[in-house]
Design goal:
Elements: H1 2-18, E1 43-44, E2 52-54, E3 70-75, E4 83-92, E5 98-105, E6 117-118, E7 120-126, E8 134-138, E9 148-154, E10 160-168, E11 178-183, E12 189-190
Parallel strand pairs: 6-11
Antiparallel strand pairs: 1-4, 2-3, 3-11, 4-10, 5-9, 5-11, 5-12, 7-8, 7-10
């Protein structure tokens, strides 16, 4: 009886553990490595956004942290920058607590080091495509040629339907060439509340 009960309970309870998880489309940016190509499931949020599916193009040799490929975003000397986003399968709700993780990295050989400057990653949520309604995460400058897993915890001020990832250097006009690499975004899930003792 006990042997039957354990599998039965796992069938019943596992789906409840997954309730509330929001999976992004192509969260590990899989695709054919190529330059100036938006990964499937994502859209550009700026006119001059031409992200690269890596490794391979532009001399980037770092291996993906998950799967086969990842995405690279750059900033340019004319002050332009690259940013991508997507519509969430389910909205994140106002005044709730959410968390997810992702891997970020950097390449010292991007375009033969012409775009090798370290950048920050900014993540926004909002009600419309490409919206920057709420900044939920800003990394430090990423300089190491390796992957760093970061955790993002946020409380939406308003219900949001879209997420946006942005290569960032500094506020205002800037003249700077740099890159940020992104891979392996986990599901967005509600924060686990500590149980009462």
């Amino acid at each position: 009886m006990r042997k039957i009960l354990i599998p039965l309970l796992s069938v019943i309870f596992v789906p409840f553990c997954l309730i509330g998880q929001i999976y992004l489309n192509n969260a590990s940016f899989e695709g054919m490595p190529m330059d100036a190509s938006v990964p499937v499931g994502w859209f550009p949020c700026n006119e001059r956004t031409t992200p690269d599916i890596l490794p391979g193009p532009w001399g980037v040799i770092l291996e993906a942290s998950e799967g086969e490929t990842f995405v690279g975003l750059i900033t340019r000397e004319d002050g332009s920058f690259e940013t991508i986003g997507q519509r969430l399968k389910e909205p994140v709700l106002a005044n709730e607590c959410y968390t997810f993780s992702l891997d970020i990295g950097h390449s010292n050989t991007y375009a033969g080091s012409r775009y090798a400057g370290p950048l920050k990653l900014r993540i926004y949520i909002g009600p419309t495509r490409g919206s920057k309604a709420q900044l939920i995460y800003e990394s430090d400058f990423i300089e190491e040629e390796e992957w760093t897993k970061v955790a993002v915890k946020f409380n939406p001020k308003n219900t949001a339907y879209f997420i946006r990832l942005e290569a960032f250097y500094e506020e205002g006009p800037f003249s700077y060439r740099g890159n940020i690499l992104i891979d392996n975004i986990s599901a967005i899930q509600k924060c686990i509340r500590a149980s009462l003792e």
